[in-house]
Amino acid sequence: MYGPVLLLLTAKVVKNFSANVSLALGASPIMSEAPLDYPALANLPSPHSVVLNLGTLTPDLFIAYHAALFEYNKAGWPVILDPVAAGATKFRAEATAECLEKGYCDVIKGNLGEIMAVAGWKGGKSRGVDSIDTGSLDDRCRLASYLAQRESNDILQ
Fold first, then answer.
1. 3-class DSSP state of 50
2. Contacts of 46 (CB under 8 A, 6+ apart)
């Protein structure tokens, strides 16, 4: 039996690592940045998902991200959003907000600063992939619950 197909729209600096980890876990990674691929990929019969990592985001790549989000939402496959440095610049904040407005993301993966920025909480800033380190565990749980409820996601209790 074959593992899931993963469309990885991920940062250039981690593409090789992401592909190798996916393979080691039994998945079949695809690193296409060509929107013309997405309708066919989203309609493959085997289980799969797409990862939208905003690490090395460009305006052209953002068009590809929208196309992948649309096709995978339409097909009903999971979408994982990694809003890298979401609060660091206006472009990244707007790109993240636009992803959440234009489609549904099953998982939003990020560090504390990124998740605070996505939720619009005060102090939601990051300089890059590093995170701010503030707030209690209770505060972090409230943040996760708030964002999950706002985005209609399930959260583990």
1. strand
2. 2, 4, 5
What CA–CA distances, in Å, run from 106 to 12, 51, 129? 23, 10, 21
- In this model, does residue 8 exceed pLDDT 90? yes
Q: What domains lie within the chain, and their CATH numbers?
A: 5-111 (3.40.1190.20)
| pLDDT one-digit tens code per residue, 52-61 | 999 988 888 8
Pairing of strands 5-9, 48-53: parallel
pTM of the model: 0.88
Q: Report the distance separating Cα 82 and Cα 137, nearest Å.
A: 21
List the one residue out of 89, 92, 91, 86 whose CA is nearest residue 112.
86
Contact 80, 106 (CB under 8 A): yes
Q: Give the ranges where the chain is alpha helix by DSSP (H).
A: 15-24, 38-42, 59-75, 90-102, 112-119, 137-150
